Amino acid sequence: MMQNQLSHIHSKAFQGSELALTTVDLSFNKLHRLPLEALQKLRHLQWLSLHSNDIDEWPSLPFKPNLHSVYLGDNRIAYLADGAFSNLRNLTFLSLDQNCLVEIERHAFPPSLQTLSLSNNLLLQIPIAALQNLRNLSWLQLGGNLFDQLPRPFRLPVKHLHKLDLSHNLLKVIPPIFKNDTEIIIKNLHLEFNYINTLERGAFKGLVLERLSLSNNRLSTIPDGAFDGLQENLKALDLSHNLLETFPKALKDLTVLSHLYLRGNAIKELDQYDLNECRYELEVLDLSGNRLKRVPREALLLTQRISRLSLQDNSISSISSNDFSVWGQSLTALNLANNALKHIAADAFLGTIKLRELRLSYNGLLSLNPAVFKPIRSTLEVLEIGNFNVPALDILQGMEKVKWLQMDNNNLRKLSSKSLEGMPSLIHCDLEGNKLQSVPLGLFRNSVHIRLNSIVLANNEIETIETDTFHKLPFLTNIVLFGNRLKILRTQSFRDMPILNTVILAKNEIFHIEKATFSNLKSVTNIFLQENNLTEFSFDVFHQVGDAKNQVFLNLSNNKIEQLIKIHEYKDSDVYIKARSLDLSNNFILHMDGNFLRPVGSTLHYLILSSNRITTIDSSTFLQAPNLQVLHLDGNRLTNLPNGVFQNCLMLQIIHISHNNISTVFSGAFRNLSSLRILDLSYNNIKTLPEDVFIGTSLERLNLSNNNIFHAPIHTLAHTRSTLRYLDLSQNRIATIPTNGLNHLHNLLSLNLSSNKLTSLSEDAFGKLVYLLYLDLSHNTLWRLDDEPFKALVSLQTLLLRDTSLPHVPNFPLPSLRVLDLSNNLLCNISDLSFSSVKELRHLDLSHNYLSEIPTHVWSSISRLTTLDISHNPIQTLSMNHFKKLERLRELDLRGLDLKYLDTRILYNLRFLTTFKTSTYAGLRSFRLQNLLSKSCSLRRVLVEVEETNLSHQLQFTFGTKLRELTITGRNLQYILPDAFQGLRTHELVLRITGTSISRLPKGFLKYLADIRYLTLDVRGNYLTTMDEEVLSPASKFRSEILTTQHISGGVLLEDNPWVCGCSLVWLGGWIRRWMRETLRVQMLHFDGFLYAQNLARRTICTMPGTNVTVALVDLDPSDFGCKQGSENNASAMTSFRDVYFWLLKTASILMTQWCYTYYYVVNSYDSLRTS
């Protein structure tokens, strides 16, 4: 039951399953309270998830369930009283992450708890008293709170913890906090992402630790004795991303250390005896991202067990003959990527007899002796040598055990049929981003490459693929030919590969595909042919493709297809392709013959014909697709829907026919489509619908918005009375809702009547809509509105009345109302009784009215309010007590007021405030945001509308450490000085500058953002035309001289600016390309993520001077403008857009998923901002 819109669970919802249910998942819904009546009947319930709802209280349970695990993360719970969970005597797992917890009473938890998560709340101190009874505790997560110090002594309820997480807090000093007379075993202690600058001597005495993380802090020195007590038990230590300039001498005492991470510091060298004490145990050493100029051989010489060493992202210029001798005998993985290597001695790897992984990509090697790899040919399994400046083919001979080969962006122009013949173990072959014009026959041999799983040839210049290029490779799963210059696909180019799953041929120049090009591919599920030059298409290009188990997703979108050619001599016994989904969107199709779909009709479930030129469809169009379930016809040129047009598609569930020019819908168009649930007819020219058009359907969602409907189709909708849940009639010309006209739609949950011609509502307009949850009446001229029409809406939770010309607020009799939008009206004041009947209200929008003062007199009626928008009202005064009764407020918008006086203490009692929007109020004397927000430590999102032309002092030292998103906007703003962000203290931030008049960002823009570990810079929607290279230069004194993009790990978003192409922007295209490969760093991206990401890569465009021609910024090349070869080209060795695209395919899918999610979140936040 997860990911629905559930706001209420009926007491009898689980009737009949009371004795059977053991697991209930209600996560990602809109529940406001625990559904006690429904749950108390589930006698055997053991697992319950209420994650990501709107629950703000947890009641003491009047029954004793048998629950073992409860998930309550991402809700709004602020307090836990005594006995909150005491009835759950078998509870072993409890998650309360991402709530608003500020107080936990002593007896809130049962002693049975083994795992307790209180991360990302607002706790000011560790709730020691509440933990003392937890004698079975094993996992305790307290990260992401507001602890600035640890209790002394730190009394834990148990003597053994598997994990204690104190990360993402405000800790600065770690003193000795555990008693020396007791010994506490903690397997994993997490202190990362704090602000720790001091470890006192004996800080960890009294502890037995196995793994300790202190990464992403402010440690510049570590005193001797800091790790006293850990000498004989600490096995893993993470000190990455601190401020260490030398190897900490305190580490010399750690004799059993096996994993040491020092990534991202400023260490220049290691002394001879730095690793001496742990020489017998050290196995993993990460020194990447430091300032090493040579391999620290002297220190490594004493070690005896190192198996994995990372020296990536340093400044090492050469590898000598003895760098890995003696000590390198145990080495299995070595990373030297992204250095400044110019030379590797021929016998450099002579002593690395066990080396299995070697990464050398992105160096500046001018020459490479093939003999370098001779000592490791018999052991090497992973070889990454991308972006070399020298030919790399010679080194591959004799590498019989290499499974993973990455040779991208090496300027390779030609391969021979014997180039890979000595690599029989090859599983993944990546030759992306070279300049290959052909793939020689015999390069991939089924007699040699019997394990080959993935072939990546994207972004080359390949023009043809011969018939037997990939013939009968037994384990080949993926072929990626994206972004080449293929024009014709020959017969049987892809044949006889028994487990082939995905073929990506998108973004080529294919204009013709011969018959049976794809043949005997029973396991294929994805064929991507979008963004080519096809003008016609027939299913005869396939023969025996897919089967009943592996049905194909076929994408032919964004071609130039005009004709869909049917197979004339088709027999039912013929098997062309078992297609489940066919995407033909964004082509030039005028008509589709009914017999075209015959070869796929029995398996086709999804058909996408959006954005074509189809003018007519009839009963024969889909005759051969009886199993069709989803149909998209939006964005065509249809003028009518005739009778029986879908009569053979009885399985149809979803139909989208929006954005056409339909004026007539015949009565038999949808009749008896018993499976039809969702129908979108928006953006057409419909005036009326036949009364019987929906007879026999099961419509749940109907969208009729943006048509020319004058009268609500009451009688037409009567036939959907038992099924219709969501109805959208917005953007029409409806002037009245007849009395009792909607009564028959008694199951309706959502009704949108916005942007019509309504001037009043009859008393019984919504008479029997007792289950209605959402009602939008915005953008109608409702001069007079009283409470009568709303009396029956006992379940209504959201009421939108934006721009309805309301002069006053009626007393809405809506006991369940939680969201009320009264913005853009004529309100001058609000009466005492206006909100007296909406005590459950949580979100109130009063913006863009004529209120002259804060309506504090109504706060007592709606004291549970969490969101308040009073922006753009003529309010002149904000006093200390104006929000005193709104202690639960989480979001507040104070922009655009006519302030003459503001008491900076107005927010002091708003402990839960996470989102705040304000103007800078340039005319208000002595106004500083720092004073206003000094107590708002819970803020995560802030929007500042700047009224001045310059931004400098206004934001300095203003925000707390929980800030994650800062938006700067305001059309008056023309200049930002680097010191504007002085005092920002957070580990992760999206910095968004949008809707300003800024045409250029200053050099040294990141000067005060050096401490932000995960920075995303969003400068979309301004007037930027160019950008200096120094704008994105690293601010850190340790990294400024090193070419890198990792200091902006979330990337730079640049769309919606008037960029002008030229030499001054070439560096930026190179910077983006480097960021994609250096920082994004995801390997083997899944195909859908890859295709999504490559579209994002081309969103930012610039205009060629003096023309209307636009070019993707990442596609800029110095040769296009006759630019001198300078630093802008050094930003990336890849100078063609091809390098951008397929770098995305080489990237770890976990990181890519996270990046896509973050990018999606940032993009949608930006879109929401533009809309508002």
TrEMBL record:
Pfam families (UniProt xref): LRR_1 (PF00560), LRR_8 (PF13855)
Alphabetical UniProt keywords: Leucine-rich repeat, Repeat
Domain of life: Eukaryota
The keyword Repeat is annotated on this UniProt entry: yes
GO cellular component entries: extracellular space
UniProt keyword Plastid, yes or no: no
Membrane-spanning intervals of the chain: none
InterPro entries listed in its UniProt record: Leu-rich_rpt, Leu-rich_rpt_typical-subtyp, LRR_dom_sf, SLRP
Annotated protein name in UniProt: Chaoptin
Source species of the chain: Stegodyphus mimosarum
